[in-house]
Please model this.
Amino acid sequence: MKSLLARIAAIIVAAALVIGLAVLYARASRPRLRGPREGGNPETSEMLRRFRLRPRGPQLSRVGGFAGQCVLLALIAMGGRYILRIRL
Amino acid sequence: MPSRLKVVFFLDLALLISVCALETVPFTGMIIHEWLGIVLALMMIVHLLFSWSWIASSTRRFLTGASVRARVNYLLNLGLFACMTTLIYSGIQISQQAVPFMTRSSAGEPPLRFPWGPIHDTLSNVVVALAGLHLAINWEWIRAASRKLWLVRETS
Model:
């Protein structure tokens, strides 16, 4: 039990390190869009809201998108296996 | 009681299907996307705990006497961990449904101070590539595990 907790703690510490680096990167990057509260364009938040609520598209296209991701992942895996066989 | 192999195999399969589903937001819709992302984070922790002996031994061997393949595998897994962690964190930052529900706060406007949205989008593509390579490098294990599981089923 103690070792399990230690392992979980190690994973959390590693994740915190990564997140810390990501936050540093995000702070260093300039914001691309600013909402009205930050003194940006008042239409920005409306545009983002519309983007989030965009229609999901027809059923076939949605299932096709999921299948496409599976195929893409399989293709990358096959390509990776090919490289591994040749190089490593 | 299911065997450890069975649990690990089906957990990994669930992770794989979840990654594919999470990559296509129109397929799941935003609400399922956000909740599935949180479940994925938990599955990832369990996946890491199951692989702990490999992580510990590979970390020790990485600087001393590991083969090129083992080093590539280690760096690939490290990259995948970093990308997944940042992906999940950025997802939490831009969450509009799941995180506000859990923290009992209003979602409000999407946080625009830091560019988490573009980071989330970019990393999701990187994760697909790394997950594909992760599959490739562990292909022999997947084959052996599925054979073992299927053989056990056929004989029992």
Observations:
- The two ends of chain A are 38 Å apart (CA to CA).
- Helices of chain A lie at 2-28, 43-52, 59-87.
